[in-house]
Amino acid sequence: MPEDKPQRRSRPAYALVYAAMIPIIQEIGRDLGYAVAVHGSMATDLDLLACPWTEEATDPETLIKAISERFHCIYQESHQTNPAIKPHGRLAWAIMFDPSDDYAIGGPYLDISVMPRNEGCRGGDGA
After folding, report:
1. pTM to 2 decimals?
2. What are phi and psi of 51, to 5 degrees?
3. For the chain, domain boundaries
């Protein structure tokens, strides 16, 4: 029997806040060698995908720490471990804005997946 997913609050204002955050997060990613894209509706959380883009891309933890510090967020331990291991080696973090918020009933949060760096691959010009 599949496990029931917790219901999360959907607020129209969340999308506005998330939209304002996206260019800042993308700049942090770019500075650390990542391309960052949105891959969700922004109705409940901000789903992001970060892909290593340059040879100098930092480790995923450095990226997550920089984003968390910029927005004064925390890593929330919940029903999954931070980071959760996903298909193809992707690592996913749930990052909460309010440390007292209960993830299961949840307020706004970031759901950031980071694709792994391929240390053995040397490619083009990084563009």
Report:
1. 0.80
2. -120, 130
3. 12-114
pLDDT tens for residues 106-120? 678 899 999 999 876
126's tokens:
């990084």
Please tell me the distance from the alpha carbon of residue 96 to that of residue 69, in angstroms, as a whole number: 12
DSSP track, 43-95: SSSEEEEEEE-STT---HHHHHHHHHHHTT-EEPP-SSPSSEE-GGG-EEEEE
- Per the CB < 8 A criterion, the answer to whether 95 and 76 are in contact is yes
Task: Pick one of 3.30.460, 3.90.550, 1.10.287, 2.60.40 as the CATH number of 12-114.
Answer: 3.30.460
pLDDT tens profile 57-94: 999 999 999 999 998 887 655 555 789 999 999 999 98
